[in-house]
Design brief:
489 residues; mainly beta; Immunoglobulin-like; 3 domains; nine-stranded antiparallel sheet; 3 helices; elongated
């Protein structure tokens, strides 16, 4: 017992010593740093991440890390069909981060300027930063919680111009100015505060696929789409959510309701008319398939605006956009006479909403093609935004007849209505109630139910006396059962 205790004590002391010797580091590989920018309209948010795990510097004990550059729109090049973008080498904190022994860090810019941080210096001890006329010193050391998590050692560095930089030993830079403003006079100074470390579960993440596609069962999204050949309206009701074992993929099962209006035309293959369909669809999202804002930089995608909170659009949820433009001399020999093909893709993403706006536009020789999709309404928990629509033609079952095993009681109904049905197998079931014009007036979000006899109540308070159509949506069978119900006074 004594040996076990001594062994445990030794291990605990070694672990504590290892933690004590853990180097300070402004940014750690593998972590995404989400910063709130103070004093900006719309609460601009930046996300920063080191590019790679670092490279050992030959002949030294140093490690060199690189920041991804910022991408900006540039003048198009008519010589090749390529994305019209230009990557700037500097980021919010320069281009490189050099880690040296004893927790010395040097931020570098391609213009040759360097800024040195020494978080382990004694309180009151100053050092030259490497920039003319600028020194720094450690002004305080404290132990405090970080982003609502456990307490950690925090050091405050004061620059000779009065600006403060606060670093957490375990988590990195907590607060301070954007250091690119010291390294490059072209950049204005931003006041930044750490608001989330998603990989460590600290703070509230606004970007990344888990935050953007944070859907939950019973969430409902409706979209409007316009193309050259017509328009469509779509409703996606989230039935299930499953996170992969590794945590890098989320799979959603949705009940999709689609109404397509084909206008027809010279370049359209579908016949004019309106079609309706229901189906169960699958959506898989991951970091590999979803743009992740990395301080205005998305590799291989295009120009990205940092997160903006818009109080008048999409229910005040933060959104950001990805933009890419192309210019081609011609796409094939028979299109050479068109004088080049120009186009752009503009996508806007919302936290918890996924893709909220998409537009694709291309033109050549005076002809143009435009396609757009817009989120028009959603329900997430108690939050509801936009105006919901429903097709004006009821969606019947496969046979087009009334429901075979569904009953509603009492019918006619007064203050309450209950739907009874039998399921051959477990599945998610939802209900919608429509008036004589086909407009949805009540909804019971889809819920998973077991096989056998089931009942679901439908809220009917406030409905006027009339004839209604009730739709029982069986997600597992990709169909709806329909029956008529009557509301009395």
């Amino acid at each position: 017992m004594t040996k076990r205790y001594l062994s445990f004590l030794a291990g605990w002391l070694l672990a504590g010593a290892a933690h004590a010797q853990q180097p300070w580091q402004p940014f750690r590989p593998g972590l995404s740093y989400q910063y709130h920018q103070a004093g900006t309209p719309g609460d601009t948010t930046h996300v920063l991440r080191l590019a790679g795990a670092g490279t050992a510097v030959a002949g030294t004990a140093d490690t060199l890390y690189r920041f991804p550059g910022m991408v900006r729109k540039a003048k198009p090049s008519a010589a090749t069909c390529s994305t019209v973008l230009r990557e700037l080498p500097d980021n919010l904190f320069g281009a490189t981060l050099l880690g040296q022994p004893r927790s010395v860090f040097v931020l570098g810019s391609p213009n040759g300027r360097r800024l040195t941080l020494r978080p382990r210096y004694a309180v009151g001890q100053s050092w030259p930063t490497g920039l003319a006329g600028l020194t720094a010193s450690v002004s305080s050391r404290t132990v405090e919680p970080v982003l609502g998590g456990a307490a950690d050692s925090v050091v405050t560095i004061t620059f000779s111009d009065g600006k403060l930089l606060r670093l957490s030993k375990r988590h990195g830079l907590l607060e301070g100015p954007s250091l690119d403003s010291y390294l490059n006079g072209r950049y204005f100074r931003r006041a930044l505060t750490l608001s989330a470390l998603p990989e460590r579960g600290l703070g509230t993440a606004l970007t990344g696929f888990k935050a953007v596609y944070d859907f939950q069962p019973s969430d409902v999204f409706q979209y409007s789409n316009i193309t050259l050949c017509g328009s469509s309206q779509r409703q996606d009701s989230v039935l299930t959510r499953q996170l992969s074992r590794t945590g890098d993929t989320i799979t959603y099962t949705m009940q999709t309701w689609l109404m397509v209006n084909n206008s027809g035309g010279r370049y359209c293959t579908a016949q004019p008319g309106t079609t309706y369909s229901t189906s169960v669809t699958t959506l898989r999202v991951s970091s590999a398939t979803t743009p992740n804002v990395l301080t205005s930089y998305v590799s291989g995608i295009g120009y990205t605006q940092p997160v903006l909170s818009n109080a008048t659009q999409f229910g005040s949820r933060p959104t950001y956009y990805v933009y890419a433009a192309t210019k081609c001399p011609y796409m094939s020999a028979d299109s050479a006479g068109l004088g080049g093909v120009n186009g752009y893709v503009y996508d806007r993403y919302g936290t918890g909403l996924g893709l909220v706006y998409h537009i694709y536009n291309t033109s050549a020789g005076g002809a143009s093609y435009l396609e757009s999709t817009t989120l028009t309404a959603y329900r997430k928990g108690s939050q509801s935004w936009g105006t919901f629509f429903r097709p004006t033609v009821p969606l019947a079952g496969r046979s087009g007849q009334a429901a075979a095993n569904t009953t509603a009681f009492p019918n006619p109904f007064g203050e309450g209505l209950t739907v009874g049905f039998t399921l051959a197998r477990p599945q998610a079931v939802g209900i919608s109630l429509h008036d004589a014009l086909g407009r949805e007036v009540r909804t019971v979000p889809a819920v998973p139910l077991g096989a056998g006899a089931q009942q679901l109540p439908v809220p009917t308070a406030g409905l006027p006396a009339a004839v209604y159509t009730l739709h029982l949506h069986l997600a597992g069978e990709a169909r709806s059962e329909v029956l008529r119900v009557i509301k009395t006074n």
